[in-house]
Each structure stands twice: as structure tokens, then as C-alpha cells.
Amino acid sequence: MNAINSGADFYVIGGGVIGLCAALQLQSQGQSVAILEADKVAAGASFGNAGHLATEQVFAIADFGIIKQLPAMLFDPLGALRIDWTYLPKLLPWAMKLLLSMKKEPSQKNSCGIKANQWRKSSRLAGFFAQMGAG
């Protein structure tokens, strides 16, 4: 086990994708950073499938496909989506905007924009890992 740099401004726990990104951002702002990693940097979940950035599975939430799933999500007592029904009148204006953005043209535009952004990020990752010495 290596000694811990006790003079660092910040300590980042974990040397995976997220920890390395946080450390690099802090360093770019002039901060000294120590990464605390139990094993080898970028060797855990970030190395295997769990670290895969699935750009092929990116989609806009404003998609008509979600409408079919909405009732099951709302009425599942253990589900992730919950609505306080007394809040419904306040929610309606936002819900109408969401529904309008589900039209074919805005939905395709949103989806293409999200995917393009993900591809830009994933292409930057190769350089990022090389810069961190983990690529």
C-alpha cells in the first residue's frame, strides 16, 4: 500500500472513470489531488462491462414509447416514478410541454442531439485515459 499524500487539497476515493474525471477536473483548476484506490487505477468496474458507456442505448425521455409504460410505473408501489396526485394541477403545464415535445420532429431532434453529445464525450474518453496513464 502506498503512503497517502497528506498535503493534497482534495482526496478522491476510487480510481475509476468517475474518480479520475473528478481528479482531472480539480487538477485543471489548480488543486492538488490524491486518488485513493484499493487496487489498480481503472481496473475495477471501469475496466469491465460495468464501466461501458452505452451510447447506443441513449434516448430522449420525451418519446411516445414511454407513454405505454407510464401507467405501470405510476401504480407500482415500489417503482421509481411517483407523483403526489395533489400536485397534478401544477404538473399539467409541464406535462403538456412534454407531450408536445414527443411529436416526431422534436423527439428525433432531441434524440440526435443527445447521441451526438454522447459520441463527443466517448471520443474524448480515449484521450482522457491516455492522459491519466490508464489507457
From TrEMBL:
Residues 9-56 form the FAD dependent oxidoreductase domain. Keywords: Oxidoreductase. It comes from the Bacteria. Pfam families: DAO. SUPFAM superfamilies: Nucleotide-binding domain. GO terms for molecular function: oxidoreductase activity. InterPro entries: FAD-dep_OxRdtase, FAD/NAD-bd_sf. This is D-amino acid dehydrogenase small subunit. The lineage of its organism: Bacteria, Pseudomonadati, Pseudomonadota, Gammaproteobacteria, Moraxellales.
